Amino acid sequence: MKVLIVGSGGREHAIAASAVKSTRLEKLYCAPGNAGIAEYAQCVDIGVMEFDKLVAFAKKESIDLVIVGMDEPLAGGLVDEMGAAGIRTFGPRKNAAILEGSKAFSKDLMRKYNIPTAGYRNFTDAGKAFEYLETAKFPIVLKADGLAMGKGVLICGAPEEARAGIREIMLDKKFGSAGNEMVIEEFMTGREVSVLSFVDGKTIKTMTSAQDHKRAGDGDTGLNTGGMGTFSPSPFYTKEVEDFCRRHIYQATVDAMAAEGRAFKGVIFFGLMLTAEGPKVLEYNARFGDPEAQVVLPRMKTDLIEVMEACIDGTLDQVELEFEDNAAVCVVLASDGYPVKYDKGFEITGLEEFKKHEGYYCFHAGTRFDGNRIVTSGGRVLGITAKGKDLKEARENAYAATKWVQFENKYMRHDIGKAIDEAEGCD
């Protein structure tokens, strides 16, 4: 098969690294790709929102399967465009990608179908949002309705902070049109867990669990980012939690989308909060999480392309998902100053070390070629992932591997997976 991946980040690099293990693969392309993906795929200089060019390329090269990795082209309807041209594509259509594309839609869906989530109100009028704060209980969570690169969520501890957040989202349009509508949500406490799943419209198969670290600084301080590191599996995702989620969240979401005439095919990311009242949905994503994919996919034994084909064909019930009995930890190497302001264009050295060690991965997110050199080109630069027999060993291995790579203004958190140490005795 000829396969085209659409995207340019660490998630797409992880997808590419998994896809090349498939016996079905003949040739791999990526648009636009990055310096790391170029090791596996022929990178094509087409942007992820240039739908006409992407469709034309897929037709010209007789692409057998397109994998859409990123949220923006999914929400924009790239899968629909490819389908109209007769090109098999993995990912939800536009009317199903709204599960991530509109937080107001997803919250209303959960309320309608009794899927556990935090209490909330939707607002299209800033004045009414300000009024709501007068009787709201703090802390409180503000969410821009649309896509905001993982940064459109503000946790506010006091009314003045929330008023500033409403102005930022709805009036100043910090996140553009994503802030035309806003969700104000009760603040939930507990452990966060991420569960990725394959869906074929009716059947859902969950992958191994993971946990992300969103905040920029150690100790979960600083601004929200696209993710500073992950570990898999989560020791807090017990059999009891899994059973509850299967009964009340996972299949219920798939069935709800089908009932709404929005049958979902692709990956649903369940962001869960394990509260004192039980697991609740924190958020949905309509694609692989990033950097969650960087710890989940390296542990997956099942042929990725075969699973994706089954999702498209509606035969996922015939596929057995298998994962290695080990653990993985990913530490993101970022540009100092991310997610606000940072310099780029610095040469990256030490990348060759990863070819010498089995079970270690360096997933590129913000890199590009500058002649023969690989240089930084984004806020999140690399995802350093390592496996281990258990989470503690994987964490030690990942942090050891971060020392192999150097670039000016390199920054990382030093407590990724620290919760592992607190979970001793968890099953």
UniProtKB/TrEMBL annotation:
- Note the superkingdom of the native organism: Bacteria
**Known catalysed reaction(s)?**
5-phospho-beta-D-ribosylamine + glycine + ATP = N(1)-(5-phospho-beta-D-ribosyl)glycinamide + ADP + phosphate + H(+)
Report any one BP term from Gene Ontology: 'de novo' IMP biosynthetic process
Pathway field of the UniProt record reads: Purine metabolism; IMP biosynthesis via de novo pathway; N(1)-(5-phospho-D-ribosyl)glycinamide from 5-phospho-alpha-D-ribose 1-diphosphate: step 2/2
Recorded GO molecular functions are: ATP binding; metal ion binding; phosphoribosylamine-glycine ligase activity
Task: Could you list this entry's UniProt keywords, alphabetically sorted.
Answer: ATP-binding, Ligase, Manganese, Metal-binding, Nucleotide-binding, Purine biosynthesis
Query: What PANTHER family does this protein map onto?
Result: PHOSPHORIBOSYLAMINE--GLYCINE LIGASE, PHOSPHORIBOSYLAMINE--GLYCINE LIGASE, CHLOROPLASTIC
The text of the family note is: Belongs to the GARS family.
- Protein known as: Phosphoribosylamine--glycine ligase
